[in-house]
Fold:
Amino acid sequence: MEFVMKGSVLEFNIGSKEGIISDEDGCHYTFNMNQWMHKGTPRVGSKVNFTIKSGILASATMVTVGKSKKTGAVLLSFFFGALGAHKFYLGYNKQGLCMLVLFVFGYFLLGLPSTVIAIIALVEFVIYLCKSEVEFEQDYVLENRPWF
Structure:
């Protein structure tokens, strides 16, 4: 009998190429790279779908979230990053509002806060650009990581 389940990667050892996946009920299943069906290596905390046959993990793959938001976030962070546009696009409304307010009202304080926000936006642009699609989705969409 075969069951399709959802869970997350608890640990993964690159040296032994083995890891542990926990299902939604807290049961743990060991796996190795032969059972990993996703491109790239598993990352701790990644959401996964996996198949159980006779109580043993048969295959696992990382959950992806439809179309990637990376391209939009990269472009927005470059052109309108100081205004927090990329934060709003990724759903981080508090952080986006913080960037927008500090940038706009920063000019009243000799522009220092505005300059700092612009530098943060530039750093985030470079970070977003350097991450792979999978890493970007995992970090900024699935794990809700609002800064850097």
